[in-house]
Amino acid sequence: MDLTYDISDIFALKVRLLPKKEAVDIARQIDDSFEKLPITDGWTKKIGGVCNIAEEPLYFELEYIYQPDESPAYLDINIIEVDDYLDYVIDKKTLKSNNNEKIT
Predict the structure, then answer these.
(1) Which of 4, 47, 48, 52 has the fewest Cβ atoms within 10 Å of its own Cβ atom?
(2) CATH architecture type of domain 6-90
(3) What tens digit of pLDDT does each residue of 11-27 get?
(4) CA distances to 42, 94, 100 from 87, in Å
(5) What share of the chain is helix, strand, coil (3-state, %, to 5)?
(6) What is the pTM assigned to this prediction?
(7) Beta partners for 61?
C-alpha cells in the first residue's frame, strides 16, 4: 500500500485560509497521524484536533475517507468549538498532537 494521503481542493483551500503557523501545525499533525486513521469502508468519518501554536487553541475537525488498500483522503476541515472537540476526546477520535502526547 502506498503510504501517502490525498487532499481535496476544498480541504486545501480551507487550510490556505488559516493563519500560516496554524496551517503548518495542522499539516504536521496530519503527516504524523494519517497511517493510524481507522478504515472507513465507504463512509466518511470525522476526527478532531487541536492546534496549540497560537495564544488561543484552535480546535478543528477533519473529514476523511480511508478505503482498504487505498490511501486516506482528507475531504474537509472545519473550525469547531472546544465543546465539540471535547466530544471527540471522549469518543477517542482525535489526532496525535505535536507536543508528542498521544491524545487517543
Answers:
(1) 4
(2) 2-Layer Sandwich (3.30)
(3) 999 999 999 999 999 99
(4) 23, 10, 21
(5) 35, 25, 40
(6) 0.86
(7) 48, 78
